[in-house]
Specification:
By secondary structure, this protein is of the alpha+beta class. The protein has two domains: about 1-30; about 35-370, Deoxyribonuclease I, Chain A (4-Layer Sandwich), CATH 3.60.10. It is about 35% helix and about 25% strand. The chain has helices at about 1-30, 65-80, 95-105, 200-210, 215-245, 265-275, 295-300, 315-325; strands at about 40-45, 85-90, 105-115, 120, 125, 130-140, 145-150, 155, 160-165, 170-180, 180-190, 255-260, 275-280, 330-335, 345-350, 365-370. It has a six-stranded mixed β-sheet, covered by helices on one side. Strand 10 and strand 11 (about 180-190) form a beta hairpin. The longest helix has about 30 residues, at about 215-245. The radius of gyration is 24 Å and the shape is globular.
């Protein structure tokens, strides 16, 4: 009997020791992460294909068949660049879009709804809008969500229900493990509007005089221009503060997305001055516009309108002209924990024509970043 008890306790101790060893090994594996010295990153606004006009249902520019062709083109571009991390904006309908993409490329993902209107689950209006941002990462990177903050728009927006009636923006932060080192990754999408520049103000005055807009319409346009640019400046401020609050000091952070701001805009300059740097590497004779009406087939097909006429408002008129001007508004940005010499490569991506189409109305950004 005594020997049986000894054997029983021995078996129990052996099992406990095996469990401890397994847990220890699992923990060690968790800390390893992907073994690489260089992270290949891609960011692209994949374009919802909606015109954002409507209550019960938003207008759609294209047929389901064309939307599927764009999705297949995206898969080809991913295969071409083989990125470790992908940030996407305007993924719609969520979570279907990001789940399908993650399954097709065998990546982990995190996402958050950004704009959805009045929704409980999949039900609500507009019926075809449940759009947001996502981060996908190679499975070895062990992607986890560590933070999310709504930057503007008011109301309530979650992945399960939403109640808001105006444009809303956000930042989503995840963490990956590279050679046992935590690396933070964020995706954001800022408010879109014409820029408050001397050019825009001069254009407003010229349009007023040429097309007979009233002084009241002119003043309303100026107020709207100022309000929309203040909106984006507040987003920059909130996002910089939130990133500093969530990301530990000295930890690497990579921020990607559609900022709807040019490099010299006040909001982008403010954000960069808070301890960030643009990964853009200038190459002579290389076009770095990510919004490019001169080349993008989707902009040319769906956005081009006759601006030599009156619109419902002066501000709408200048907005339409703004849409047809090329600009760099999509970025991969890093914090100061990643020095300039660690940015190995950066260039435009997602600008290839597949089967006669571009995969989005934006072009994307690709960067290779060395992680110590």
């Amino acid at each position: 009997m005594f020997l049986k008890k000894i054997s029983f306790y021995f078996i129990i101790l052996t099992m406990v020791a095996a469990m401890i060893t397994a847990i220890s090994c699992k923990k060690q594996h968790t800390l390893e992460g992907l073994k690489t010295n260089t992270l290949k990153c891609m960011t692209i606004n994949v374009w919802s294909g909606l015109d954002y006009i409507g209550t019960f249902k938003m207008g759609e520019y294209e047929s389901p068949d064309l939307r599927e062709k764009r999705y297949q083109a995206f898969l080809k571009e991913i295969a071409r660049y083989n990125p470790d991390i992908i940030a996407i904006n305007e993924a719609n309908f969520l979570p279907d879009y990001v789940k399908r993409l993650a399954n097709d490329i065998n990546y982990d993902y995190i996402y958050h709804v950004g704009v959805a209107g009045l929704k409980i689950g999949r039900c609500g209006i507009p019926v075809n809008l449940k759009e947001g941002d996502a981060i996908l990462a190679r499975k070895g990177l062990q992607l986890q969500q560590v933070g999310h903050k709504q930057l503007s728009g008011g109301g309530i927006i979650t992945n399960y229900f939403s109640f808001h009636t105006e444009d809303a923006t956000q930042v989503l932060i995840g963490r990956v493990i590279v050679n046992t080192k935590p690396v933070y990754v964020a995706v954001t999408h800022w408010h879109a509007s014409p820029f408050d520049t001397p050019h825009s103000r001069m254009l407003l005055k010229e349009l007023q005089q040429k097309f007979g807009y009233t002084d009241v319409e002119y003043q309303e346009a100026i107020k709207k221009l100022e309000a929309d640019n203040t909106w984006r400046k507040n987003e920059a401020k909130l996002m910089a503060e939130y990133c500093k609050a969530i990301v530990p000091e000295h930890a690497p952070l990579i921020v990607m997305g559609d900022f709807n701001a040019t490099p010299d805009s006040p909001e982008m300059q403010y954000f960069l001055q808070q301890g960030f740097r643009d990964t853009h590497i200038h190459h002579s004779n290389t076009d770095m516009y990510t919004w490019n009406p001169l080349k993008n087939l989707n902009i040319q097909k769906y956005y081009k309108v006759d601006t030599n006429k009156n619109f419902e408002s002066l501000y709408t008129h200048v907005s339409k002209i703004h849409e047809l001007e090329p600009k760099r508004i999509d970025y991969i940005i890093v914090n100061k924990s990643i020095s300039p010499d660690k940015i190995i490569n950066s260039k435009i991506c997602c600008d290839t024509i597949y089967d006669g189409i571009h995969l989005s109305d934006h072009f994307g950004v690709y960067a290779e970043i060395q992680i110590d």
